Amino acid sequence: MNEGFCGWCGKPGAEGDHATCRQRLSSIDPPRYCTSCARRMVVQITPSGWTARCSRHGTFRPGVSGPAAGAPPDPAKAGPAGDPTLSLA
Amino acid sequence: MTAAAERTAVEQGAEDILAVARAQVLERGEGLTEQQVLAVLRLSDDRLTELLQLAHEVRMRWCGPEVEVEGIVSVKTGGCPEDCHFCSQSGRFPTPVRAAWLDIPGLVEAAKQTAATGATEFCIVAAVRGPDKRLLSQVKAGIEAIRAAGLDINIACSLGMLTQQQVDELVAMGVHRYNHNLETARSHFPQVVTTHSWEERWDTLRMVREAGMEVCCGGIIGMGESIEQRAEFAVQLAELGPHEVPMNFLIPQPGTPYEDYPVVAGSEALKTVAAFRLAMPRTMLRFAGGRELTLGDLGAEQGMLGGINAIIVGNYLTNLGRPAEQDLRMLDDLRMPIKALNETL
Ligand code: SF4
Ligand SMILES: [Zn+2]
Ligand SMILES: [Zn+2]
């Protein structure tokens, strides 16, 4: 994975097994942790979408390849993928 | 055989429960007793198809082919003072859910998303023990904004335990249905929640009913209850006589006491759906949270053909559902019309 942290359990992506995390993120759970800094995000789910906001890295939305709020992601840094579901694939 | 003799025969294991249910529930519209529900739940998996078929016939006969579609949204997420052991929104457990409030434009947008699916119900939910003044005024302003936006949809609320005054306020706001789940059998409730009682929940439901709102009351299967307690719960709900029973299957939530509980097996979930239908032939039985995990796509269809006649489409409060379009396609494939507004099931 190209991100620092798991969006589901908040642990470092390179450590341990995240199979369950991936499965939950690809089916019934929005991300709860920022993949860049592992902060718990403020998540709002609506009938047809969700947003997850990291106080440092901006707002994630489904299927967006970068934070939807704040500055555009710097590709040189390990910024959030925007869709942490995909970031764990 | 008289109806009473039939019930006794099944309770003593002398007669096949599905034959009895056919006569008692399908023909006469009388729900199963606790012992009879238990006999259904104990049926072996090789009778599942037969059971689902009967439950479907009962639903078609006593409710009809329409399916009520509903969307839900959380206006106040997380930070709840209660300790419901299944809930990721309890502030007492180290869950990853952080507190959030949805503003009025966000609420209107959620109602629009729901109405766009053809749903006739939109339920506004808050993670609270009961509403305070701030929450009630937020809900009131939200309902006014939804109406001002011209959205023609019934509005339901789920705001925890209520006082009589709060019940009256909700009626005045035009809330037509109130959700408050008993969650599980009375005998199992103290294992699930310690910060309030089953009886307190029942009191709110009684006030809601007496005030003329429709009662929506269900629970969660898979919280460590025994099969006997599932049967107990079915008849306790039947006794309450709610307009609607939402059926959830436990989603083990990280950080909660139930995080390591197993997901309910698909056949068990379907058996429970059918058994609840046979206990409540005329009640709207809604697929709610957990069906994606427990049943998958195929199981969802089997449930629709096994007693269910209402669904929540789209996302839930803290979990995601499958896309609404997928459920609407499924209903279309099954030739089940979506209930229109102002039609009573
Ligand atoms: S009262 Fe509702 S929101 Fe609060 S912990 Fe119980 S189920 Fe969760
Ligand atoms: Zn993980
Ligand atoms: Zn971050």
Describe the structure in your own words:
The complex is a heterodimer of chains A (89) and B (345). Chain A has 89 residues and is α+β, with helices and mostly antiparallel strands. Chain A contains 2 helices and 3 strands. Chain A has helices at 19-25, 84-87, and strands at residues 42-46, 49-54, 58-60. Chain A has a 3-stranded antiparallel β-sheet, with no helix packed on it. Chain A starts with 18 loop residues before the first helix and ends with a helix. Chain B has a single domain (62-333), classed as Aldolase class I (TIM Barrel, Alpha-Beta Barrel). Helices cover 43% and strands 13% of the residues of chain B. Chain B contains 13 helices and 10 strands. Chain B has helices at 3-11, 17-27, 34-41, 48-62, 104-115, 133-148, 164-173, 189-192, 198-210, 227-240, 266-279, 291-304, 324-333; strands at 68-77, 100-101, 121-126, 154-158, 177-179, 214-216, 219-221, 244-249, 284-287, 310-312. In chain B, strands 1, 2, 3, 4, 5, 6, 7, 8, 9 and 10 form a 10-stranded mixed β-sheet that branches. At the A-B interface, strand 1 of A face strand 1 and helix 5 of B. The site of one zinc ion has 6 residues of chain A, from loops. Chain A: Belongs to the BsaP family. Chain A: This is Biotin synthase auxiliary protein. Chain A: Keywords: Biotin biosynthesis, Iron, Metal-binding.
